[in-house]
Design goal:
There is one protein chain. By secondary structure, this protein is mainly beta. It has a single domain (4-429), classed as Porin (Beta Barrel). Helices cover 7% and strands 49% of the residues. The strands form two sheets. A 16-stranded antiparallel beta barrel has the order 2-4-5-8-9-10-11-12-13-14-15-16-17-18-19-20. It is globular, with a radius of gyration of 21 Å. It starts with a helix and ends with a helix.
């Protein structure tokens, strides 16, 4: 019942026929002279060959794009009752993003972007069950073995960019909320995780700053290189998921990105994050990340995408913690096959083990999934899928989690159909 609005919304847009003349040759909303496919979350970069699942239309001098995902699913964490932490739920993780852009003078461009989620409606304040997940709070207590819900407003941003040459320029970005120049494109927008309903266990080590209430970013780009830096609010969103948190600009980050080929996007970044968690106000974190996102169109029916992500949090108290992730998605015809492998260091406190709060534990997860399109229209696609995850558990955690807990999920995914893009300009855009 909670998901009726979401279903009607997605299917409504899927049934509307917008005026467009495919295939389209579209330019970036934020980086004039570069292809639209390069636009990631915030000011991050994806590969130029990234498939775009979106609805595009124009109105006057404005160009619009709608992105989104809705998973109607059943998830059962610790399906074999191996430990004491598992839970099950029927839910509907979801998000919707709207982008608008228009030219501003001969060389300038304005971009408006909004991202929203009804996770609080479909997931509740505690979010959805996910073994070994941690981060943020509910009713003043740390969330453990749960993925927190996203805010109603995940991004409300405005950006101005100005080209200097044919494929170079500078940009300014402001978000309340928004995403600073820190980490890879968020998992919600990576082609390698497009069919995976779950957030990575290393989310708060790698890309959790994608919802930040107060972001100012400035950057420059030249062909395949980009340098951007941000001032932003280090505090994670509060428990009131419908409001706009008070902006602060107490943290900073810098990121260097490079797209050496149309199929590959690389980045390294560093950020100082002041007091990210409300229940640990005196703990500040230095975060360092590096990532490689790859996407390759094998032919008209096949696409392979993969991401390798590393993130490290170094608090001003305690030891540095690392999170490694590999994920991939192989689409062939109506079928998609996907996987995610993770290795994350988490403290006993993050896992809700009070007696061993400062001890570091090694968390591992191996996920395999499959999905099949059951409807593919001009503007919307619907697929059925399933995923299983196993968690090899080290000896010290087996009394709580069991030796080898596993989870199972089944879902119906509703999302925009893939846009048909022209690629002849990529080599010129990248200077090849």
């Amino acid at each position: 019942m909670r998901s009726k609005f979401l279903i009607v919304f997605f299917l409504f847009y899927g049934s509307v026929s917008f005026a467009q003349d495919p295939p389209m040759d579209m330019q970036s909303a934020l980086f004039p002279g570069l292809p639209m496919q390069r636009d990631g979350s915030g000011t991050s970069w994806l590969p130029d060959s990234t498939p775009m699942h979106a609805i595009h239309f124009r109105s006057g001098s404005w160009s619009y794009m709608l992105h989104g995902n809705l998973f109607l699913r059943y998830t059962n964490q610790d399906a074999g009752n191996d430990g004491t932490r598992g839970n099950e739920k029927f839910d509907a993780p979801n998000w919707l993003m709207v982008m608008a852009k228009r030219d501003f003078g001969d060389r300038g461009q304005i971009m408006l972007r909004g991202m929203s989620s009804l996770d609080l409606v479909t997931e509740g304040g505690m979010g959805y069950p996910l073994l070994f997940q941690s981060g943020e709070t509910w009713k003043g207590k740390s969330l453990v073995d749960r993925q927190h819900p996203h805010d109603l407003f995940g991004e409300l941003s405005v950006a101005y960019s100005r080209s200097i040459g044919e494929d170079s320029g500078g940009f300014l970005y402001f978000g309340l909320p928004g995403e600073p120049a820190l980490g890879p494109p968020v998992y919600l927008h990576r082609p390698s995780s497009q069919n995976n309903p779950d957030a990575p266990l290393g989310h708060h080590w790698q890309d959790s700053s994608h919802v930040t209430f107060g972001v100012m970013t400035a950057g420059i780009y030249y062909k395949q290189f980009k340098l951007d830096a941000s001032l932003f609010n280090g505090r994670e969103p509060d428990e009131d998921r419908y409001n706009i948190d008070r902006p602060r600009f107490n943290s900073a980050s810098i990121r260097l990105s490079m797209n050496p080929s149309p199929d590959l996007a690389l980045q390294v970044s560093y950020g100082y994050i002041k007091s990210p968690e409300s229940h640990e106000p005196d703990v500040n974190v230095q975060r360092t990340t590096a990532s490689a996102v790859w996407s390759h169109q094998l032919d008209a029916e096949r696409n392979l995408a993969a991401s390798l992500v590393w993130g490290m949090n170094k608090p001003n108290t305690g030891k540095a913690q690392n999170a490694f992730l590999f994920e991939a998605d192989y689409g062939v015809g109506k079928m998609s096959y996907f996987t995610r492998l993770e290795h994350v260091s988490k403290t006993g406190e993050e896992l809700g083990l009070g007696a061993e709060a400062h001890q570091l534990f090694s968390v591992k997860a191996i996920s395999l999934g499959i999905s099949r399109d059951i409807y593919y229209g001009k503007n919307v696609s619907v697929s059925l899928g399933a995923m299983g995850t196993i968690y090899p558990v080290e000896k010290e955690l087996r009394s709580v989690y069991g030796a080898m807990p596993f989870s199972v999920e089944a879902f119906l995914k509703i999302s925009p159909a893939r846009l048909q893009m022209m690629h002849h300009a990529m080599g010129h855009d990248m200077g090849h």
